[in-house]
Amino acid sequence: MALYDIAVVGAGPAGAMSAIRAGRHNKAVALIERNNAIGKKILLSGRGRCNVTNIAPLSDFIVRFGRQGEFLRTAFSKFFNQELIDFFKVKGLELKIERQGRVFPVTDKAISIVEVLKIYLQENKTACLYNKQVIEIKKDNGLFRLFLDTKEEIVARKVILASGGMSFRATGSTGDGFVIAKKLGHSIAALMPGLVPLRAKESWVKELQGLTLKNIRFTLRADKKKIVSNTGELLFTHFGVSGPLVLDLSSEALDLLKGRKEIRMNIDLKPGLSPEQLENRLVREFRLAGNKNARNIMKEILPLRFIKVFLNLAAIDSSKQANQITQAERRKIIDLLKLFSLHIVGSLPIEEAMVTCGGVSIKEINPRTMESRIVPGLYFCGEIIDASAPSGGYNLQQAFSTGYLAGESAAE
Ligand SMILES: Cc1cc2nc3c(=O)[nH]c(=O)nc-3n(C[C@H](O)[C@H](O)[C@H](O)COP(=O)(O)OP(=O)(O)OC[C@H]3O[C@@H](n4cnc5c(N)ncnc54)[C@H](O)[C@@H]3O)c2cc1C
Question: What domain range is 203 assigned to?
Answer without folding.
Answer: 197-347
